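Technical annex, item 7. During the second reporting period the consortium partners agreed on a shared format for inverse folding records so that results from different sites could be compared directly. Each record opens with the tokenized structure and is followed by the designed sequence. A conforming record, contributed by the partner at site C, is shown below for reference.
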């Protein structure tokens, strides 16, 4: 360890970091307070915080954009159901894309498709998988009642652990 970086707001409240991804000389850290911290990897200092949706979780990069799953996980039963899109040149949120309630996992394949796994509301809204085209930011495919668990994407293949019974 070369440095510990504290992620706190102006009231000295912990921002609750969740996930981290890297692009060029920046690290992006999703924080449960509804922000993404932008960290300069050379100076190891926070450059700015970008406001996104409620309780952001995992992130993925494609087409010079950062995709952030806004779970709203602490807002039961009113989960968030959006993916924030951040332009990596301007470091600003440029849009939100609607997906199924409680998106938690995000990954990008080699073609620039963004896979978003949503947990649903653990009741009447089932888990789902949404695939977004990063070139247009339009939803290409949506699979409702998707029983995939943890996800990883390598090249052009997505792998899922089994969630629930087959």
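Designed sequence (site C submission):
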């Amino acid at each position: 360890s070369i440095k510990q970086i504290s992620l706190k707001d102006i009231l000295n409240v912990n921002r609750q970091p969740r996930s981290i991804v890297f692009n060029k000389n920046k690290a992006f850290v999703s924080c449960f307070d509804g922000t993404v911290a932008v960290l300069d990897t050379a100076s190891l200092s926070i450059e700015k915080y970008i406001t996104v949706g409620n309780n952001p979780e995992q992130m993925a990069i494609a087409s010079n954009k950062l995709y952030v799953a806004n779970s709203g996980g602490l807002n039961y039963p009113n989960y968030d159901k959006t993916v924030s899109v951040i332009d990596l040149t301007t470091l600003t949120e440029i849009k939100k894309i609607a997906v199924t309630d409680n998106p938690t996992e995000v990954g990008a394949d080699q073609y620039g498709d963004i896979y978003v796994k949503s947990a649903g509301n653990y009741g009447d809204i089932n888990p789902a998988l949404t695939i977004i085209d990063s070139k247009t930011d339009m939803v290409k495919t949506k699979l409702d009642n998707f029983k995939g668990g943890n996800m990883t994407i390598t090249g052009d293949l997505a792998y899922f652990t089994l969630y629930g019974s087959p």
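The radius of gyration is 16 Å. The mean pLDDT is 94. All partners now use this format for quarterly exchanges.
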